[in-house]
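Revision sheet: structure tokens.
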Amino acid sequence: MTEGDLAAFTHLGGTVRGALSERGFSTPTAPQRLAIPPLAAGENTLVIAPTGSGKTETAMLPVFDHLLAGDGPPEGFGALYVTPLRALNRDMRDRLEWWGEYLDLAVDVRHGDTTQYQRGKQAENPPDVLVTTPETLQAMLTGERLRDGLDDVSHVVIDEVHELAASKRGAQLAIGLERLRDLAGGFQRIGLSATVGDPEEVGQFLTGGRPCEIREIDVGSNVDVTVRQPEVRAEDKELAGRLMTDAETASHVRLIRDLVAAHESTLVFVNTRQTAEALGSRFTELELPIGVHHGSLSKEARIDVEDRFKTGELDGLLCTSSMELGIDVGRVDHVVQYKSPRQVTRLLQRIGRAGHRQDAVSSGTIVTTRPDDSFEALSIARRARAGEVEPAAIHEGSLDVVANQIPGIVQSRGTTPVREVLETIGRAYPFRDIPEETVREIVAELDRNRIVWFDEGDDRLETSGGTWQYVYANLSMIPDEETYEVHDIASSSQIGTLDERFVVNFAQPGEVFVQRGEMWRISEIDDDEATVTVSPIEDPAGEVPSWTGQEIPVPAAVAQEVGEIRDVAQPQLEAGADASAIGRELSARYPADEYTLTEACGQLERQAESETPMPTADRLVLERQGRSIVLNACYGHAVNETLGRLLSALLGQRAGSSVGMEIDPYRIELEVPTSIATSDVLEVLEETDPDHVETIVELGLKNADALAFRLAQVSASFGALKRWQGSGRLSNERLLAALEGTPMYDEAIREIFHEDLAVEEASAVLEGLQSGDLEIVTHRGLTPIGQDGNSAGKELLAPENADASVIETVKERLQNDRIILLCTHCGEWKAKTKVKRVPDQPECPECGSTRIASLNPWADEVVQAIRAEEKDDEQEQMTERAYRGASLVQSHGKQAVIAMAARGVGPHNAARIINNLREDEAEFYRDILTREREYARTKSFWE
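Predicted:
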């Protein structure tokens, strides 16, 4: 360490240096050495370093020092520390309170759960440092007393600024900071960020285009990551029996178990909450000290596992992306990533959580499951070491954010000239190029919706009767989504929830999806009750999930490198090399063991052996079998989604019917009518004008539920939805018709193109095909690589004995159902009981008859009908049905009672079930479940 390195703390005053000694900070960490000098000089600074490397103290030590200088801290708020997660609020307060107490500076937290009493205290006597969220800052900007306190702000620290820069929350915060600047004048801006590919751009986002010092730690050189696909061992077969799964999945569990056991404290990252739960249930079965942590768990459950991990009670923590951020869980010495992390930034953020004692190397293992997964992980691992990181993808010009901020500005300032609103918004970096005409269109829309009042004569804005209510109902840019409960038809129990986005965009009866680590088929959707009824898939081997969860998109650069690996392997395979030889060559460039590389290259070897063309970075392979067409294209999610929508729209137009589409980073899979020839697909790719891609895709979106869903969310931000909605839910067609040509429609389209599509890159693919720079070849039948897309998403899914467990669940539920037994002979005896208490041959204790009707527990009207001396037509039908059921019970005893206890199974269907003459009890219950599913699917017709 040089004298300059040691000199970082000399930029701080004596009081803060004394606190450093008391706290045990003898030498500065790497980010402190780099960043404290410009921060102490008051420069706007972006600090880029891994989580756990002392970024918080890097930012706050110079801030504390400045607050103590001169006459001491101001009367109002001196510094704001803004974090995107409430959980980080708690951590920051815990970390900063010690410094505050030692330095005699007040530190407090404010967010949505802060009590009214505490808020009042903060307004009366502002703390020197306030830890808060972007949304709470929005609310503070409109409070009169709080605005007085904000006048004194001299420093704002934005934690996890990379996360905010890529979201609408960040765009909203960018304007919020300019509104704060209108109150407080210039203040120092400090951003704390994970590694990003465009630090200068993130710095400009932070400062609103003003000068910004960038201080970055080279994370890649301190990352030691290995890619491993587990080999199935003899012990895995025994483990598979304990876990009721297959040996391959058991090998994944075993490898993760061994990696956790080999280290003191391990974070195990997964890409979806479903996978976290599925893995977690298997570790629970093995009684291993590994907890589960994700955003759907309650706050109490999350805090509990965080604390148990921190104290060493848990050796491992299964977690999703929320743990990428700086939640303090103590020291982590290893990170496991289950399946490809999909992006370089995510790998660096996740692996970067391990090993930060004086700049130690961060170690991690990516556990992969199939060839695509392994090649992708290898590419990402290499790119992470080389520092080839994706950009942050800032939301440029989000119109609904402008609509959200204008009422807040007017509410806080009162009567405001439009030019002042334009000036404040235009200073925020994401809105630096927004046209004045666009802002005026938004103002006009807000005026129409009575959110603000626009005086055209004086060109000024005033509050309306709806301004205050709008501002406080729309503090967040995170859209409110309804949650649908998911109920298992077999047990009637709730198995989880689905977001409205999923239900609108995907769900319909018959579709298959993954939840809780298992596969389910949708039977019924009830929008009024917000419920989805599902049935488990008994034979997952024969099913492909239509939807496996919100996927992290793989960038084009990563997918292209996978294509380049194939390109390198192809001539060697053609010359006689095998998978093992290719793997050995790749080991010089990529961090993986011999088995992993050989297994991955086995996919390429199978492709070569089948004498089919190899899809590469520069070669697309179009293959067909029946109605299924697969375009192998190594371009990542966004480009393939764009090309897929283009093909789907134009081929559907030719056929006069819809074309099904599924994409992954390496394939576009289409289900086409028989009238569509392979040559039609080639013609679209080779003759469509690249300049027309955006227009064609936008036209196709008009028929997509995804656009209607975004439109509904965006128009709610403008306060417009209620104007057209009336008393009921608006149809997609009416919504499109009402909003096309408005700022809401423009924003919904902009958002889809920004988040999901890549028009320029997709157009470049068409240009390459048409110029000959890219090659496309066709093949009859599906190739080994083409078929591998269908195996995605099935790891950790339903166990081998799932069918048995489902049948047992159905049996248990039916045996515990309550029924009414009624004697149809004398009509006098009636008893309510559970099915399991019914004797094998029920009979009436009054008259001894065995003609006993089995009725639903709420069927008192049937009892009255049987007992009535004179019956109307409806009562005659009830009586006839009860008599038929009683006859069935007389002939088949308790078996008939069980069958008729099932949902939608009356005497007629019960007789059909019984007449199948099933000797196996499981088969009997399976027949019942089949009838229940059929009833759930067709219930709306009968009702």
